[in-house]
Amino acid sequence: MSTAGTSPLDRASLAQFVDHTLLKPEATRADFEALVDEGVALGVYSVCVSPSVLPLDGKGLKIATVCGFPSGTHHSEVKAAEAARSIADGADEVDMVIDLGAAKAGDWAYVQADIAAVRAAVPAPKVLKVIIESAALTDHEIVEACRASEAAGADFVKTSTGFHPAGGASTHAVSIMAETVGGRLGVKASGGVRTLADALAMIEHGATRLGLSGTAAVLAGFDGIEPAEGGSSGY
């Protein structure tokens, strides 16, 4: 898979950064199957889908799902059970949401323990990404959330669910996250990344994965095509 800081990206290499995402609650199985077909055609790394749709034939793509989504306020044992079910149903990667209230209260021991509970349910080589909802955190809280994620054994830290009113990914947050984890963890930028310029900026600032619902529009930027309005799937 491509990494940041190498040669300029072309369409195919950028596509390999992408978790092609559909998390709209009204999405049907037919919508998810169409997502897979589109992802295959676009050459993405994975599709990211709701856990209730699993198992899902990824047709060679990795399958990612979410856990404790989107609020993160579920009990740790419930998050762990959800993650374990997703792994049993064929997920390769799980994107969990931290307890944002605990983070805002500075209870980093709880945040770490919550992540560790899910990590235990997502054994390596399965991948655990931790959504910290960076737009709702201060810079200090972003650093502490990343440290808790690393201490709990996560593989990635991730900016956003795409559903929080505070907003989604920013290059500022991605930079802080990348500096904090220092290459030991991946950094996933998601939430509001809708143009080729957005995607490239996130990678330039340290993102090693992108969560996109409008992948086709982003990749069309290589052809100088402006993305259409709308079409967001929460990312």
From TrEMBL:
Q: Which compartments is it annotated to reside in?
A: Cytoplasm
Q: Name one GO biological process term.
A: carbohydrate catabolic process
Under what name is this protein listed? Answer: Deoxyribose-phosphate aldolase
Instruction: Quote the cellular component terms of the Gene Ontology held in the record.
Output: cytoplasm
Q: In which pathway does it act?
A: Carbohydrate degradation; 2-deoxy-D-ribose 1-phosphate degradation; D-glyceraldehyde 3-phosphate and acetaldehyde from 2-deoxy-alpha-D-ribose 1-phosphate: step 2/2
Stated EC number for the protein is 4.1.2.4
- PANTHER family per UniProt: DEOXYRIBOSE-PHOSPHATE ALDOLASE
Q: Which reaction does it catalyse?
A: 2-deoxy-D-ribose 5-phosphate = D-glyceraldehyde 3-phosphate + acetaldehyde
Name the InterPro entries for this protein.
Answer: Aldolase_TIM, DeoC, DeoC/FbaB/LacD_aldolase, DeoC_typeI
Q: What is the lineage of its organism?
A: Bacteria, Bacillati, Actinomycetota, Actinomycetes, Micrococcales
Function per UniProt: Catalyzes a reversible aldol reaction between acetaldehyde and D-glyceraldehyde 3-phosphate to generate 2-deoxy-D-ribose 5-phosphate.
Q: List the SMART domains hit by this protein, alphabetically.
A: DeoC
